[in-house]
Amino acid sequence: MDIDLYIDFVYHGFYRLDDIEERFDEYRLMAEEQAASLEDDEVILFAIYGFEEETERFIYANFMLRRIKLDHYARVCERLSERCRLFCVGNG
Amino acid sequence: MIKNTMAAAVAAILISGASIAAFSAAKIQPNVLSETEKNVTAESVSASASSTSTAASTTTATAEPTTEPTTLRTYHIKFLDFDGNLITTLAVEEGDPINYDAVDIKSLHKHIDVNTEQAFSSWDIKPDFADADYTVHALSKTAVITLKSAPTKFRYFSTKGNVSLKGLDVAIKLSVQTPQKDKNGNYITEESTINISESCTAKPSALSEAFNKSDKATISVYPIGDQKALCSFDIVCYRDLGDVNEDGSINSADASKVLNIYANMAASQNMTVSDKTMKLADVNMDGQLDSHDASLILKYYAEASINPDFVDWENVIDFDSLNIK
């Protein structure tokens, strides 16, 4: 199964699921390293997985390191949750 | 891993619900709950990250109803075409998904020239949601169709079967822009070439249709699914060549008849042969009816006896080396 990969919203091509998972671990570690400097009301959004609405098929992964306010994150979760899964870390 | 990842995803969504609920509560009683809410949600979010390596419930997450945050910024997402001209600007509230379907990309499809077509390929960046003003450029894919060589078979000896496109060489060169830029600031393109010779079609395709009015016809070649002809070429039918006795098959009886006519012609100065007989019997098309033709008919017969499929005269005679008038 090939999946579209975006890094910081920029398209990088088709990748195998194994590669996506490796990239996921990479970004999670980087996010965790940076999390110590976060304020209480901030999180680092490091991955968005996109799914097809009808079939729930995994269609793209977007990796990033976005430091965002919690309320912003909540809003993004709310608005994207129908077709996306979001991954973030806080400093807790 | 993906199982864990999905579990984490579910956890993250659940967290978002918790966050949202917390925000709702905070808005109702900001003085009492705001700090608590922050701590709870921050811890929850942190927990969502750590849950990536642990099993989690399979509960399907749904977003809870929430009160809108008090101050929401509106971001502007500009969409530019291949030449940098503005297609449209979307105003999107902070955190809202960007609706790419609202951008008209069909208008980007165009024919640059007869053999070149350009269309939308992708966006150079594709933010899922609005967290800043963005300028998004459309990237193109350009297809150039190239005819390297036309079909080479133009002699036919029967009206059975279809027009052959043997020798046809057509390729589509596809150039797709990638989001990466070169040192001059131009998008780097990835190029590939696809040979589509096999999928091209001839019109008319049946020899019976092509030669239904005449022994000459013009055939047009189309890429599959295209209404515009790539090229056209002329074909000619040497109908029933070698079937001198017109019995529907080419065999030793035809060779024998050729030899008989040849012998009669040699014996008599006044011996005449009808145009039709000449056309059927003069298989090497040298304008003479002689033992060479009889020999070639026998050769054809020998090959046809071995090969149950139709034997093309071009497998027996090299017509290209003959000076056919």
Describe the secondary structure blueprint for this structure.
The complex is a heterodimer of chains A (92) and B (325).
Chain A: E1 2-7, E2 10-16, H1 17-35, E3 42-51, E4 58-69, H2 70-80, E5 84-89
Parallel strand pairs in A: 1-4
Antiparallel strand pairs in A: 1-2, 3-4, 3-5
Chain B: H1 2-28, H2 30-50, E1 74-80, E2 86-93, E3 110-113, E4 116-123, E5 134-149, E6 155-156, E7 169-181, E8 187-195, E9 201-203, H3 207-210, E10 216-222, E11 231-237, H4 252-267, H5 275-281, H6 291-306, H7 313-316
Parallel strand pairs in B: 1-5, 6-11
Antiparallel strand pairs in B: 1-2, 3-4, 4-5, 5-7, 7-8, 9-10, 10-11
Helix pairs in contact in B: 1-2, 4-6
Overall geometry of chain A: globular
- Gyration radius over CA of chain B: 38 Å
Could you say which overall geometry of chain B the principal axes of the C-alpha atoms support? rod-shaped
Proportion in helices of chain A: 25-40%
- Estimate the mean pLDDT confidence of chain A: 90
Average pLDDT value of chain B? Answer: 78
Counting DSSP E segments of at least 2 residues, the number of strands of chain B comes to 11
Report how far the terminal alpha carbons of chain B are from each other.
75 Å
| Total helical segments of chain B | 7
